[in-house]
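User: Hi! I have a protein structure encoded as tokens and I'd like to know what sequence might fold into it. I'm fairly new to this, so please keep things simple.
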């Protein structure tokens, strides 16, 4: 069978599946204010700012600011990311928000934040979906799928209640500005023209004081009971940690809190699988300690081709990061992902890239490699539907998604990886290589040329694929 035919048939075989699992997502939810950044709109933004200052600051500084504090900072960040074609997540300070709101008043509001996106997507796929977030104003609650529930303590007992029923009008509203840009668009910065090489986005996140990445004191006591109610947990938002105040804790106390809370979730349910979706920290000096702390307590780790270079450098693996930067391809990403797996003692690293995924599994793994491949292809089809139509594709749309053609990028990477792995590992099946302590999977994925949105793609891929793996394990456990 032709290689492409094999993978397309594998894809079709998973289109009718439903992740019949109890899912949980925490902590970061917000309202995304989405702006489609056309060349005309950017020109308008430049005119509304101190253009000469913005361009001069860019020309004299190759480094991006730690946070966006002014229109000049805004333009420096946008110019850099358009040129690189990479995703970017930065904090935007309160002082510049009035300018952004005025210049980009024509925006679209949607559910945002990793936990919010994952919760809505799991509900749309007919999984049981539970979410926890410290800020839940009515403006945020109305963006959740009505099937999503929230763990709530009533009369010292834990209940899962419809999320709209537990909104709090006094909570702050967290808004993140998302600037989406298309492929092959040309932007003018003074005398410099930049043409984008791929579609992507720049995220500028607000940081209300109440947006704490921790459970409430009341819920802390019930975490073991919560863990018994769920099969898979998706933890995100730890990138908001700071050196000083983390819900009344200094950084080292916060690390101990993370360790204890994740341990509590699994105390009464040792089969609970936990996934951590990575986002680089604003405070880079905290990165290594936070990574090591969280990853000691989780099974799975999700990251993209840009973020892995940062994580590797913070863990002292400069050469691997340099190799990826010099020649980003499946093989260099595999070597980086394997280093993360071993260094952080993970069971699984899922690296999602444009057109293909690299997944490294510690042996023995809790489901078969075949199940992992099926889950990866399912996630790719789901993500393609999201890129094409936006929103949260439901289970009924998945058969159509499973008919979409996988990318030529993926097949080319698979072929090159196969050549580079010759003599280094045993190939045990299409896209699968094994060594004594691990196996690596390279699976082709979809590429949508002009996506409606790129926000939440990594979260969608990671959560859908891992949920399907856990679903496979649950079904196996039911077999007599």
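Assistant: Happy to help. Inverse folding works backwards from shape to sequence: for each of the 480 positions I chose a residue that suits the local structure. Here it is:
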């Amino acid at each position: 069978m032709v290689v492409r035919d094999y993978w397309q048939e594998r894809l079709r075989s998973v289109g009718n599946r439903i992740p019949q699992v109890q899912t949980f997502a925490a902590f970061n939810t917000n309202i995304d204010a989405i702006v489609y950044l056309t060349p005309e709109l950017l020109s308008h933004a430049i005119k509304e700012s101190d253009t000469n200052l913005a361009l001069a600051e860019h020309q004299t500084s190759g480094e991006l600011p730690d946070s966006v504090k002014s229109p000049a900072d805004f333009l420096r960040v946008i110019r850099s990311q358009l040129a690189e074609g990479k995703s970017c997540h930065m904090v935007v300070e309160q002082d510049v928000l009035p300018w952004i709101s005025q210049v980009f008043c024509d925006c679209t509001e949607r559910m945002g934040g990793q936990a919010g996106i994952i919760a809505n997507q799991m509900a749309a796929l007919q999984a049981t979906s539970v979410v926890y977030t410290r800020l839940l104003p009515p403006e945020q609650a109305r963006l959740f799928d009505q099937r999503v529930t929230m763990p709530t303590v009533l009369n010292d007992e834990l209940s899962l209640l419809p999320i709209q029923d537990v909104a709090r009008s006094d909570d702050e509203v967290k808004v993140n500005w998302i600037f989406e840009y298309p492929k092959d668009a040309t932007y003018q910065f003074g005398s410099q023209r930049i043409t984008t090489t791929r579609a992507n986005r720049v995220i500028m996140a607000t940081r209300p004081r109440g947006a704490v990445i921790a459970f409430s004191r009341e819920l802390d006591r019930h975490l073991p009971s919560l863990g018994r109610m769920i099969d898979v947990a998706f933890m995100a938002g730890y990138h908001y940690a700071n050196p000083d105040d983390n819900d009344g804790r200094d950084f080292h106390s916060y690390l101990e809190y993370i360790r204890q809370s994740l341990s509590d979730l699994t105390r009464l349910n040792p089969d609970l699988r936990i996934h951590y979706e990575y986002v680089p920290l604003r405070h880079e000096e905290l990165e290594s300690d936070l990574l090591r702390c969280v990853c000691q307590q989780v099974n799975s780790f999700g990251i993209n081709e840009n973020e892995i270079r940062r994580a590797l450098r913070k863990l002292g693996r400069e050469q691997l990061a340099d190799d990826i930067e010099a020649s980003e391809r499946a093989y260099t990403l595999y070597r980086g992902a394997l280093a993360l797996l071993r260094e952080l003692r993970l069971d699984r690293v899922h690296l999602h890239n444009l057109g293909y995924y690299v997944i490294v599994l510690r042996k023995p793994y809790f489901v078969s490699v075949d199940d992992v491949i099926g889950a990866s292809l399912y996630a790719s089809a789901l993500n393609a539907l999201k890129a094409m139509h936006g929103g949260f594709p439901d289970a009924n749309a998945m058969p159509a998604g499973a008919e979409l053609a996988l990318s030529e990028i993926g097949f080319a990477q698979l072929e090159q990886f196969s050549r580079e792995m010759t003599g280094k590992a045993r190939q045990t099946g299409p896209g699968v290589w094994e060594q004594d302590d691990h196996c690596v999977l390279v699976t082709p994925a979809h590429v949508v040329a002009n996506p409606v949105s790129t926000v939440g793609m990594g979260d969608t891929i990671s959560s859908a694929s891992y949920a399907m793996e856990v679903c496979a394990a649950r079904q196996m456990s039911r077999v007599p």
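A useful reference point when you look it over: Confidence is low (pLDDT under 50) at residues 56-60. Feel free to ask if any position seems puzzling.
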